Amino acid sequence: MWTRSGHVRHSVHCVRRVFPGATRQIGARNASRTAVVLDIDGVVTRGATAVPGAAEALRRLRQQQIPFVFMTNGGGVTEKKKAEELCSLLGVDGIDADRMLLSHTPFRPLAERFREKRVLLVGSKDTAEVAESYGFDVGNMAVTSSQIVKALPEIYPWPVTHCTLPPVDVNAADAPPIEAVLIFYWPSDWAMELQAVVDDMQVVSDVLAGGRPLGVGTTGTNGTGVQCAELWSSNPDFLWQAGYPVPRFGTGAFVECLQALWKPFGRSPLEVQECGKPYAVQFQAARKLLSQLAQHDDFERIYMIGDNPAADVRGANSAGDPWRSILVCTGVYQGGVGSNDKEDPAWRVEENLPDAVESILRMSG
Ligand code: G3P
Ligand code: MG
């Protein structure tokens, strides 16, 4: 049992259903001025399980020709793979990559910006493949902590499960400096990643680093307390719902740990460039996806359906018109429909996705 109303966990459907008009886009002639953006975990799925009624709710949106896209702070896989995973979890067809905005999707343009520069990629699952799909030179200019530690094991003198990419000696005399650290996704070995990222950020003495200091970016100078590489993080979620009854730590918690390890030396907090919900960049990108799908941008209402007040509701509320936040009770928020989040009150609170969709259809009808 996992929701307030007593919905029971159920396993993945084995019957695949095809949405009516799955491949058809809505033409400008009969364009809906209502659109929906769906959070995934805690709304459509919970961990590896579909939320009851989710597939039917999406079918209702299709039927009514309401354009919808997914905006999740999850990632670690390509947009295409995430769309396929979602189809398989829900037992449906017709959700393509063009409906999928992941936490790291806004990193795509960074591949061009850092094309000739060395960057450190952080993240488990398929992070290397994702970065490659965005155009990063993975394994060479875009390296992982595992590649660094393979070449320089003294950096992290503990047991490591290495990736398959070749070792890279980032301290070699002719090695380019690490200009940026890009946190794509939750890393699997926090201890090693925390060590490597702090090493990249700080200017240590030549003696300590055994040659060229690790990660001295072109903007850095030798000295203490200087952050010498850009730090980008794609997911500020401190907690997320997942399958366990109590929310789990997210990538935002990893960044907090990083700040904690950086602080004791009397330094100013690390400057982090962030994307992911609740940041405006994500909501702008979601609107762009919707416009492409609907073939217009003349929306009267864009409903954001989410379970996390600090991410989904805050982001939609800050985006202003035509966004409206709808909070559901199947994930992080457990306050029930009679209540609302204190810090980030939603425009409307609904029990679950099916209820949220029905109320949207009523409002737009
Ligand atoms: O790692 C995923 C998690 O932080 C949140 O996912 O779909 O609720 O934005 P979602
Ligand atoms: Mg969520």
TrEMBL record:
<dbReference type="InterPro" id="IPR006353">
    <property type="entry name" value="HAD-SF_hydro_IIA_CECR5"/>
</dbReference>
<dbReference type="InterPro" id="IPR006357">
    <property type="entry name" value="HAD-SF_hydro_IIA"/>
</dbReference>
<dbReference type="InterPro" id="IPR036412">
    <property type="entry name" value="HAD-like_sf"/>
</dbReference>
<dbReference type="Pfam" id="PF13242">
    <property type="entry name" value="Hydrolase_like"/>
</dbReference>
<protein>
    <submittedName>
        <fullName>CDP-alcohol phosphatidyltransferase class-I family protein C22A12.08c</fullName>
    </submittedName>
</protein>
<dbReference type="InterPro" id="IPR023214">
    <property type="entry name" value="HAD_sf"/>
</dbReference>
<dbReference type="GO" id="GO:0016791">
    <property type="term" value="F:phosphatase activity"/>
</dbReference>
<dbReference type="Pfam" id="PF13344">
    <property type="entry name" value="Hydrolase_6"/>
</dbReference>
<dbReference type="GO" id="GO:0005737">
    <property type="term" value="C:cytoplasm"/>
</dbReference>
